[in-house]
């Protein structure tokens, strides 16, 4: 059993932009589970900072960070459209630095974004895509009420190999 670590969880702020991008790009190289790879996010720190600032005015988008000693080690987001017919659907994304797997950080981030979604007056459906081989993530999502809606064959390509991707959702 791993020792317990104390993390802080809060909404991202514009000055987190550089640390967020660093965490995201580091995590993308640690596993093949993300859609981003060596190419990185393609965003500048300024672009990311502006994006984070816009989230404060959005009723259906959020970005939460997990911090250990003021260092961002994970994040969770709900991203939704501003189009009226689909603005109730949030797409969930969770990223945790692999060094900190096994400390329940993904669980804490998921609980926080689910609380945010339940308090939201707009979001009432959360959906996500997760590689079928990412069994730890699938188990976590199922534990919190997400259901499998389908499997996309050849949903992602990693190192030249096509892999299936699960589509899951939870109604709020």
Q: Explain this structure to me?
A:
This protein has 172 residues and is an alpha+beta fold. Helix content is 28%, strand content 34%. The chain is built from 4 helices and 7 strands; from the N terminus they run E-H-H-E-E-E-H-E-H-E-E. The protein has helices at residues 17-30, 45-55, 105-119, 135-143; strands spanning 8-11, 62-68, 71-80, 89-96, 125-131, 147-158, 161-171. The chain has a 7-stranded mixed β-sheet. A hairpin with a 2-residue loop joins strand 2 and strand 3 (71-80). It starts with 7 loop residues before the first strand and ends with a strand.
For the structure shown, list the relevant keywords.
about 170 residues, seven-stranded mixed beta sheet, alpha+beta, single chain, globular
Distance between the termini: 33 Å
Q: Numbering strands along the chain, what is their spatial order in the largest sheet?
A: 1-2-3-4-5-7-6
Biggest sheet architecture: 7 strands, mixed
Count of alpha and pi helical runs: 4
Proportion of helical residues: 25-40%
Q: Structural class per helix/strand content? A: alpha+beta
Radius of gyration: 16 Å
Strand content: 25-35%
Total count of strands:
7
Q: Give the SSE order as H and E letters.
A: EHHEEEHEHEE
Q: Which regions are unreliable across 5 or more consecutive residues at pLDDT < 50? A: none
Global geometry: globular
What is the residue-mean pLDDT, rounded to a whole number? Answer: 91
């Amino acid at each position: 059993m791993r020792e317990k670590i104390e993390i802080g969880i809060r909404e991202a702020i514009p000055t987190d932009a550089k640390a967020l991008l660093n965490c995201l790009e580091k995590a993308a190289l640690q596993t093949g589970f993300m859609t981003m790879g060596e190419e990185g996010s393609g965003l500048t720190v300024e672009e990311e900072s502006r994006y984070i600032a816009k989230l404060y005015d959005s009723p259906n988008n959020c970005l939460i960070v997990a911090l250990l000693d003021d260092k961002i080690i994970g994040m969770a987001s709900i991203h939704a459209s501003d189009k009226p017919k689909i603005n109730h659907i949030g797409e969930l994304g969770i990223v945790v630095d692999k060094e900190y797997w096994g400390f329940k950080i993904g669980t804490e981030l998921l609980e926080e974004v689910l609380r945010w979604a339940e308090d939201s007056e707009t979001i009432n459906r959360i959906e996500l895509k997760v590689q079928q081989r990412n069994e730890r993530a699938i188990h976590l999502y199922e534990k919190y009420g997400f259901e499998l809606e389908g499997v996309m064959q050849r949903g992602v390509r990693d190192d030249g190999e096509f892999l299936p991707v699960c589509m899951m959702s939870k109604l709020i």
